[in-house]
Amino acid sequence: MQRNPDIPYVVKIEKIIDETPTVRTLLFSDETLSKVLPGQFAMVWIPGINELPMSVMISAEKGKAAFTVRKHGYASTELYSMKVGDQIGVRGPYGNSFTLKQGRLLLVGGGTGLVPLVRLLTFLKRNDDVALIIGAKTKDEVFFEGLANKLLEQNKHRVVVVTDDGTYGQKGLVTDVMEKFLHETTFDAVYTCGPEKMMHKVVQLAEAKKVYAEASIERMMKCGIGMCGSCCFGEVLACKDGTVFNSQFLLTNKEFGYTHRNKAGMLEDY
Ligand SMILES: Cc1cc2nc3c(=O)[nH]c(=O)nc-3n(C[C@H](O)[C@H](O)[C@H](O)COP(=O)(O)OP(=O)(O)OC[C@H]3O[C@@H](n4cnc5c(N)ncnc54)[C@H](O)[C@@H]3O)c2cc1C
Ligand code: FES
Predict the structure, then answer these.
(1) Per the CB 3.0–4.6 Å rule, which of 82, 105, 129, 133 could disulfide with 156?
(2) Where is 146: in which H helix or E strand?
(3) Nearest residue CA, atom 10 of ligand 1?
């Protein structure tokens, strides 16, 4: 059933997947969210708690969608702690999406920033040559490596995990591995989502090699539909004009990588 995206729609959690000790994927039936474009998000109402923006995760089953949530503050911990059969409200999809380029593609993600990148993998063409760099603090926090390899099994691909402490995969930062890849291969596009400092460096590295790049950015979101202004990102609104922006725009936006607004609308440094 296609529904009005702006009217909250109640769904029941049908399945829960533990991805790491702090990250879970919650699956539910919703035809509309099952079809969103890579980079789009939904507003998720946790009854009696709050409403949070969440990227829409893929599901192997037709007509089903999912959120992959990291327990962080009060609201995300409540969402993470929900059980099968519990109900949440969803609005959306909202926002724009990654531009689909073809050829040699480099995806760089960290944490739950991997969610829109995994959705992007499902939109790629068979002959795309894909490199995905997954960043995590430590071995226990690595997720989606197996899923990404499975989604890319028909493509020429490499999935590389990088951990800060070297307990799994390569030790260091995703941007160290990215620099190596950019030296070895001429990419047609770079896509990134994750911590903003990381994305800033990714976009700078791509720009230095004149490779087209896009990043999906996060800002404080309340309405999700361009009315409240809480998600302003320089002169634009992340919820309506983004969340995906290209490097040409990002590198002229003075907030990118440096400041964001808190719940009171005040600018804070990253
Ligand atoms: C477009 C978008 C997609 C997102 N996708 C995911 C996802 O797939 N998985 C996931 O775990 N998280 C995702 N987030 C982050 C998520 O919305 C929350 O920010 C995060 O879960 C912390 O919320 P909290 O209330 O538990 O934390 P709190 O302790 O209340 O806040 C901690 C910090 O979280 C951020 N935050 C809190 N409320 C909001 C809000 N309404 N909008 C934006 N940021 C907020 C702020 O930076 C805040 O300082 C996404 C955010 C955006 C903007
Ligand atoms: S969240 Fe209200 S304008 Fe973007």
Answers:
(1) 129
(2) helix 145-151
(3) 69
* C-alpha of residue 175 to centroid of ligand 1, in Å: 24
Q: Is residue 1 part of a domain?
A: no
Cα 210 to ligand 1 centroid, rounded to whole Å: 32
Is residue 3 in some structural domain?
no
pLDDT digits (tens, 9 = 90+) for 131-182: 999 999 999 999 999 999 999 999 999 999 999 999 999 999 999 999 999 9
- Last residue of a domain, which of 94, 114, 131? 94
Give the containing element (helix H, strand E) for 79: helix 74-80
Could you tell me if residue 154 is left (phi over 0), alpha (psi between -120 and 50 degrees) or otherwise beta? alpha
**Total domains, the chain:** 2
Enter the pTM of the model.
Answer: 0.96
Q: 155 with 264, same domain?
A: yes
| Domain enclosing residue 197, as ranges | 104-269
Q: What atom of ligand 2 comes closest to residue 224's alpha carbon?
A: 1
